[in-house]
Amino acid sequence: MRVRLSAESVHNELVHRVEEYSGQDLMACYQCGKCAAGCPVAFAMDMLPSQVIRYAQLGLVEKLLDSKTIWLCAACQACYTRCPKGIDLSRIMEALREIVMLEKGSHINYDALASEEEADWPQQAFIGGFRKYTV
Amino acid sequence: MKVSYFPGCTLNTTGKGFDNAVRASATAVGLDLVELPDWNCCGATYPLIIDNMLELAAPAHVLVAAQAEAQTLTTACTTCYNVLKRTNKFMREHEEERDRINDFIEAEYHGEVEVKDILHLLRDDVGFDAITDKVQKPLKDLRVASYYGCMVLRPPKEVAYDDPDHPMSLDDLMAALGATPVDFAYKNECCGAYLAVKDTNITREMVYAILRSAQKTGAEALVTNCPLCQFNLDKQQAEMRKRHAGFQPIPIFYFSQLMGLALGLETSDYGWERHYIDARPLVQKYLAAES
Q1: Which of A29, B27, B84, B192 could disulfide-pair with B203, CB 3.0 to 4.6 Å?
Q2: pTM of the predicted model as reported, rounded to 2 decimal places
Q3: In terms of Cα–Cα distance, which of B283, B289, B285 is closest to B265?
Q4: CA-closest candidate to residue A75, choices A52, A92, A56
Q5: Which residue of B has its CA nearest to A17?
Q6: CB spacing of A75 vs B77 below 8 angstroms
Q7: Residue A36 structural domain
Q8: Cβ proximity of B256 and B15 under 8 Å
C-alpha cells in the first residue's frame, strides 16, 4: 500500500480523538510486535494489533474503523501486560469502537441472541458484550 | 474472619452451584462470608475510555455499601473482582474524578475497603496448609489443569496477586486438596469471554487451543475460578467435537466444587446438572476410590 504522508494527514482529528479517548501515546510504540505475537484472537483478525497502532501513527485511523479487529479484541490485556512501552492497546481498541458507534450506533445483532440456545448463558457474557458493542 | 461477600449476577443465577460451593467451603475453612445487603451489578467490564465515569458509578456504589459492613470485600466472580479492584484503585488515586463519582452516587468514598479475590483470601488469610488439615477425602491422583483466565492476572499492576505469566495459586490449592496439578502453557490465555455473544466460531477455536494444551499434559479435567471461563470452556465442547476429529470432551470444574468434595461436604447443590460435559462420572470415580 502506497501512502503519502504530511504533517496534516498524520496529525488529523481522528488521531487526536483516539489519543484523547484512550489516554495512550501512539508514538510511544516502536513496533516490536509483542502484542501481535501474544494476542489470542490474532488468528481471526484482519489487522494485527501492532498494525492497528502503526496505522494510527500514520494518521490512517479511517482504515481501522472499517476493520474487524477492533470488534474482536476481548480486552484480555495480554498485550498491555507484555508491552515494553506500557501501551494499553485495549484502550485504543475501545476508543476506535467508540468512534464508530458514536457515528453509526450499536454494533450487535440482537436477533442472533434471541434463541433458546442463549437462555442459559451467564448474565455477565451479555452485560459485558452489551457494554462493549452498544452505545 | 468476617468478610463482605459480593456474589454478582452470574453466581446468583447460572453459577448458583459455584456460589453454593464457595459459601460452604469458605465457611468450612473458617471464613465468615456475609453477603452484602442490596448489592447491585458491577457492570461486568471495566470501562477503558479514560473519562467514562458513568460506568464506574455502579462498582463504586458496591464499594460504598461494603464499607459499612467489613474491612474486606471479597467475590468469587473474577470479573466482578477485576472491576471492583480497579474501581477501588481509581477511587483512591484520582481525586477530581472521585469527587464527581461521589457526587453522582451521593457518597463519601475514598477507597477505604480492601477488595480481595476469594482465592487470594484462601491462599493468604486462611492458608493452603490449614485447608489441607481439613481435607477429608483427598483428590488422590486426579490430574487437573488449573485455568486462571485473565481477570485475576491482568492488568498486573492493578489486580494481580500472582505471577501474571505463571500463576500458581489455583495449582497450589489443588495440591493442597490432594490432587495432582499439571502445568500447561495456556493457563492464562483468554477464552474469549463476552466475544461469544458476537461470534462463537471464534471463541470455540480459542477454547480449543486451551483444552488441547491441557489434554496434552494428561489432564483429566480443568478447574477454573472464573464463571465465564467455565461456561465458555464447557459449553463450546459439543460443537468442537464436530469440528475437530478426535477431540475428547473434558469436564470443567469450579475450584469450589473440588474444594467442597475434598473437604467432605454435602455437594448436592453444587450445580452438577448444569455442566454441559458431565463432571459426575469423574467425581464418582474418585469418591469410589476413596471409600
Answers
A1: B192
A2: 0.97
A3: B283
A4: A92
A5: B49
A6: no
A7: 7-104
A8: no
Which of A43, A71, A98 faces B198 most closely, judged by CB atoms? Answer: A71
Cell numbers found for residue B49: 475510555
Interface residue B193 vs chain A (CB under 8 A): yes
Contacts of B41 (CB under 8 A, 6+ apart): A127, B8, B9, B58
- pLDDT, tens only, B97-129: 999 999 999 999 999 999 999 999 999 999 999
- Name the amino acid, one letter, at B152: V
- ipTM associated with this complex: 0.95
Instruction: Kindly report, residue by residue over A11-29, the tens digit of the pLDDT.
Output: 899 999 999 999 999 999 9
- Residue at A133: amino acid letter: Y
The verdict on a CB contact (< 8 Å) between A125 and B228 is yes
Residues B99 and B150 in one domain: no
- First CA to last CA across chain B, in angstroms? 33
pLDDT along chain B (291 residues), means of 10: 96 96 98 96 96 96 96 98 98 97 97 98 98 96 96 97 97 98 97 92 97 97 97 96 95 98 97 97 88 67
Residues B86 and B186 in one domain: no
Is B262 in contact with B136 (CB distance < 8 Å)? yes
Residue A17 class from Cβ within 10 Å (0-12 exposed, 13-18 middle, 19+ buried)? middle
Cα separations in angstroms, A53 against A7, A16, A50? 17, 13, 5
